[in-house]
Amino acid sequence: MPAIRSQPAAFESAQYGTAKITAADTGLAPSASDLEASAATIFVFLPGKLFTMESTRQKKVARLVQKELAEIIMHLGSELAPGKMISVTTVRVSPDLSLAKAWMSIFPSDGSAMVLEGLRNSVPRLRYELGHKVRNQLRIVPEIAFFIDDSNDYIDKITNLLKE
């Protein structure tokens, strides 16, 4: 019978994609020099932690919350942010389905911090409306945390730099 190990062999040395991570690493991710431009999923092994993809249930709940939250914000958009267009770009749900992190794209982007603050102040009302819409699909309505998705601003910045 083999000896019982305190850590699985995968923690000692693991080669996945283009990043090599060992048990001696203390960071959450490999350094940029270890990673080459790769679209492959990289699994990071740390003692006691494994960062993997979302489960099927998390994805389904995230899609449902994104769809319903977008509809609610569309109806309440003039109250929440007059003169702005708010889009729900991404929603991620925690493994226990109790927290939904929603990334919002706000156009025009000037004053987006104030719009985000307004969204955060109206979380109880938005969660109440969400609860009415998903009451037949979900047992527990997740808490909602809003974040700004500034990927469009980043794309515009890169485009302007390439034009110069």
SSE arrangement:
Elements: H1 9-12, E1 13-16, E2 19-22, E3 44-46, E4 49-51, H2 56-80, E5 85-93, E6 99-107, H3 112-121, H4 123-133, E7 143-148, H5 151-163
Parallel strand pairs: 6-7
Antiparallel strand pairs: 1-2, 3-4, 5-6
Helix pairs in contact: 2-4
Average pLDDT rating = 77
The CA-CA distance between the termini, in Å, is: 67 Å
Helix content: 25-40%
- Beta-strand percentage? 15-25%
The number of helices is 5
The gyration radius over C-alpha positions equals 21 Å
Largest sheet: 3 strands, mixed
The side-by-side strand order for the widest beta sheet comes to: 5-6-7
Number of strands: 7
- Low-pLDDT regions: 1-50
Order of helices and strands: HEEEEHEEHHEH
Q: What is the structural class?
A: alpha+beta
Oligomer: single chain
Q: Which term fits the overall shape?
A: globular
